[in-house]
Structure formats: C-alpha cells, structure tokens
Amino acid sequence: MAAKTLSDHGINDFLILEATDKIGGRMVSTDFSGYTVEIGANWVEGVGGKHVNPIWELAKRYNLRMSKSNFDNISSNVYNEEGRLLPLSETKPHFDIADACQSYLDVLSNSLNAHDEEDISLTTGQRLFGLIPTSPLDMAIDYSYYDFEIAEPPRVTSLKNVLPNPTFVEYGDDEYFVCDKRGYSYIPKQLAKDFLKHENEIIIDPRLQLQKVVRHIEYSANGVRIETEDNSTFYSKYAILSVSLGVLKSRLITYQPDLPYWKIKTFYQFDMSIYTKIFLKFPYTFWLTGPGTEFFLYTDDSRGYYTYWQHLENEYPGSNIIFVTVTDDESRRIEQQSDEETKGEIMQVLRKLFGKDIPEPENILVPRWWKNRLHGGSYTNWPIGVSEADFDRMKAPVGPLYFTGEHTSSNFNGYVHGAYLAGIATAETLVDCIKYKKCKEITSNDLPWMNPNTTQVTNKTEQTCNGVCCKAIQQERESLRSFYIDTIDSLQHALTNKCKPS
Ligand SMILES: Cc1cc2nc3c(=O)[nH]c(=O)nc-3n(C[C@H](O)[C@H](O)[C@H](O)COP(=O)(O)OP(=O)(O)OC[C@H]3O[C@@H](n4cnc5c(N)ncnc54)[C@H](O)[C@@H]3O)c2cc1C
What we know:
The protein is α+β, with helices and mostly antiparallel strands and 502 residues long. It has a domain at 450-499. It is 38% helix and 18% strand. Helix 1 (2-8) crosses helix 14, helix 3 packs across helix 4 (122-129) and helix 3 (88-114) crosses helix 5. The longest helix is centred in the last third of the chain and has 31 residues, at 469-499. The radius of gyration is 24 Å and the shape is globular. The structure holds flavin-adenine dinucleotide (FAD).
C-alpha cells in the first residue's frame, strides 16, 4: 500500500525489495492435504459497524470466499480436563462473569483515558472487578477472550491502549473467516496489479524485486544505500522500511549510523506476539460437526495448553481438518520441539476428548512464526508501560528512513487493516516531504541526551540548562549517554563473540 500510494501521487521511481519469492507477507496460505489453509492472517476482523473496514471492501470487491464465524456457541462446546463435554448450565455462569468483566474493562479503560490516569494491565483491571481466573474452566474462558485475539496474556497487556478494541468499535463485531482457494493474499496481489506491470496474474514489473533480503542500510541527509544478502546494492533518496517489528527487534538488518536510542528502545518495548495455528488432517471426523460446533475449548490445569480448537467442516465439508491455536510461551515451546512430539501431545488431548480409538492424523502442519527470521513473531500487542508518545516514535522517520507496517498503526496494530492503513499514511507523509518539502522532524519528546546530533537536543538543553545547575546537568547527561553507549557496545561485543562460528 505504501508503494501504491506513492504511485497514486505520481511518484513512480521506486523499487520494492521483498525477501521472499512472493508478496503478501503475513497473509500467506498453503496447500494442506489438498485444501488451502491460511497459516497467517485468516479473518477479516471488524465488520458490520459504523464504518466500513477497508479490507472488507476489498474482500467483497475481489469476491473472496468467506464464512462468518459464530463464536457465541462456544459456551456449549467446552470440554473439561477429563474430556467431559460440560453442560451449558455449568459453563454459562462463568461466561456471563467474563462478559461482565470485559464490559467493565472497556468502561474502566475509557475512564482512565478520559482522566489521563496511569495505565494498568488487563489483569489489574480484572482484579479490580473481582475476577481472578484460576480454575481450568475460568482460565480457558479467559484465554479465549484475550489471548486468542491478542496472542499475549492479560497480565502484560495495556488496558488503556487495547480495550475497548478500536477494530470492533470502529468497524463492528463481526469476523469473517477467509476460506478461498486463492488465499487471503489475493487481496495484496490484486492491489499490486493496480500499479505494477503484469501479465495475467504474474507481476513482471522490474520495480518489484523478489528474493532480496535487506541486510544493511546506510543513511544520511543525502540518501540511503541498501545492501541485500545477494550482495546487490541499491541507492535511493528515501526508503520506507516495512519489515515486521520482529525483524526490527532482531539484528537481521544493520544500520550505519545505528538507529538512535529512542527508536531502538521503542522497538524493544513493544511486543511481537506469537500466534500459531496447528493444522491436523484425519481420515474421518470424530469431533462434533453441524451448526454451532465450529469452535470448542479444552480446559487444562496449564493455561493455554491446546485450549482453542476449530474444525473446517463448515468451510470445507469432508476435509476432516481441524486446527488448534496456541500462543506466546506455548508457541515458543512448540516451535522448539519436533512436529512428532507436538502431534503426540495433541493426540493425548484429543484422545481425552473423543476416546482412545480415534485415528492418527494423516498430516500435521506446525508454522514457526517466531523462528522465522523474516517475521520474528506473528503480530504486535501493546504492552503495559508504552505510552502513546512512545508509540509515536515507532513510526517517526529517522532522516530519510520511513517506517510502516501494522506495528505503526496506533489504532489497528496487529491487523491486516492496520497494515493497509499504515502503508497509506506513511507514504502520504513521505509524499508531503518529497513534493511539498514538509518533512517530518524527530519530535521533541525524544530522549535528547541519546541523540546529540539533532538540533533539538541543543535547543532543549539550552532551555533547561542554566546557572549553577548547568554543569551538573551536562555531566549527568554525558555520563548517562556514555553509560548507555558502553552498555550497548559491550552487549554487542558479547553477542558477536557468542555468534562467531566455533
Ligand atoms: C498467525 C497469524 C494470524 C493472524 N491473523 C490475523 C487475522 O485473522 N486478521 C487480521 O486482520 N490480521 C491477522 N494477522 C496479522 C496480519 O497478518 C498482519 O498485521 C499484517 O499482515 C502485517 O502486514 P505488514 O505489511 O505490516 O507486514 P508483513 O506482512 O510481515 O510484510 C513485511 C514483509 O517484509 C518482508 N521482509 C522481512 N524482512 C525483510 C528483509 N530483511 N528484506 C526484505 N524483505 C523483508 C517479509 O517477507 C514480508 O513480506 C495475523 C498474523 C499472523 C502471523
């Protein structure tokens, strides 16, 4: 969308450098035993509200096959630790309390924001309400309300910035599950065809360069020099960096000069969560199918242990495919073990729920988002402790380097529509700079002592540094600056040594 927006504004001398052999990024599908499954983004989230989600519009325009997800019935589909399907009379009171608590958290968040009060975590909010989910049932319900959406536990998540979820407030509560042979990535592929040369479905425009893994960026007021893994070099006046926050946090790309402290700090403070859908194909279905059965929960003593299940019989009747979603530490744990081990754990759970005689799966698919160096996780979550001013630094340009991607969308981070809107917004900022010379400067909220080269540093220091305190402030500033630089240097040194091939 960033490139398309530049093109829409008549700026066409750009290159798109993409590491993989296709576009779409985290919108990615694969063939799984003859069926197209989405390993990454799956739902158009936020439909039926006061505004129209732009992704919904595109999905309709391209006639994407989708099915509306009905999560309401999940309270009828809860299995306890022994595998017993719990009657609604047993589960409903727990869901009702979770509902009430969520409404309370929405109101509390609005109130904290309105009064400019300090942020708290979702867990703190839950405690204020009087809910402490500790039983396997309450933990599973809690997991389904929060982790299943934001992929991190409530205790790390910012109440003020995450609830009420702007996606559902703005665009509505409905969610549509994409189940199209062409994949969810049909949308970005079609958008690319709007402005890149193509023959039928294939983009042949030389401005799209695939399999170019960016590894080094040099930048100055005069422009940008980019090196890719295949030793190609590219020069440009400006660059828009649209890699994920996981990549920004990693050292996959090095910078000369290094990015300023305030920028790196913001990357490290924000969270890249992990959300993993593990697909299994069986010779036949042994789980409940039919209306209202699509989603079910398994409650376990260990929070988030293979809790959230979904079958694909509504979307692909006769496919005999089921998938379970895990997140965060469970995803990390599972990514580090073999698929056989994961299959063994999953089968233990399924045998509890559906009996010892169920068949072995014919196929299993375990995506590894965290280990993938081009993603470093699934999508961002706003953690407690990051203010909006901090967040503004996420998208702030550094000289000729501009930043975009879902992680730069303050309202819709973590979503496809967030990435889409961020691409437009960042490109428009760059267009303002290129065409109208309205170039965005680094804000005065930056940590000035870490960034001695910006003019604002001098101004700010001059304003605050006077009389007898001046020397002390300067000394403090210098010692803090060298402390951080030394720490970063020694850490980098230690890591480089550690990473040297033995
Ligand atoms: C498992 C999962 C489930 C999700 N579910 C949903 C959902 O149901 N609904 C929803 O709205 N959102 C969902 N999301 C989030 C959504 O997919 C993302 O927010 C969105 O696709 C991010 O788009 P982006 O352009 O910011 O980043 P990306 O799509 O990650 O694009 C970044 C691109 O940069 C490339 N790249 C990385 N490093 C380099 C490098 N060094 N050099 C060159 N290129 C590089 C990558 O290959 C990638 O193509 C999900 C994500 C995941 C992973």
